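Dear H.,

Thanks for agreeing to be a second pair of eyes. The structure we're designing against is below in token form, covering all 136 positions.
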């Protein structure tokens, strides 16, 4: 099985975390210029790269979004509900890959990219029948 690696792609200090508003927040990593989306809701966070899975376009705030959860791709107008990480236009198409959100003891936050995201899908084993008495 392939080993999973992790890489911190964005770090925010406590002050930057406090400044995040409820709903969609766009943040750029000053060292490499890559952008990320952080969704805040009642003190919990979800995050992803600011890159559409369809053809790699960047997301912008969707002006048609009334509930503050949707972003729109600049290439083909695909829409992503960041609170669920599911694409809503077109419906049932993709699920956006999430970044792990680590809250630090000092109130800061790190966004961590896991690679591969689901290592068990890379080299899956053949299912084996469970033998009687094997599981208790």
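And this is the sequence the design step returned. I haven't edited it by hand at all.
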């Amino acid at each position: 099985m392939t080993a999973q690696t992790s890489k911190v792609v964005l770090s925010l200090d406590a002050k930057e975390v406090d400044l995040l508003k409820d709903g969609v927040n766009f943040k750029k990593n000053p060292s490499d210029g890559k952008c990320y989306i952080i969704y805040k809701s009642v003190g919990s966070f979800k995050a992803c790269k600011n890159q559409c899975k369809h053809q790699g376009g960047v997301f912008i705030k969707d002006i048609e979004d009334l509930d503050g959860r949707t972003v729109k791709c600049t290439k083909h107008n695909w829409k992503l509900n960041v609170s669920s990480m599911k694409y809503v236009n077109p419906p049932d198409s993709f699920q956006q890959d999430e970044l792990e959100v680590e809250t630090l003891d000092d109130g800061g936050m790190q966004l961590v990219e896991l690679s591969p995201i689901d290592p068990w899908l890379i080299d899956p084993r053949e299912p084996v029948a469970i033998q009687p008495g094997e599981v208790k």
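Two observations from my side: The chain has a mean pLDDT of 88. The two ends are 27 Å apart (CA to CA).

Warmly,
E.
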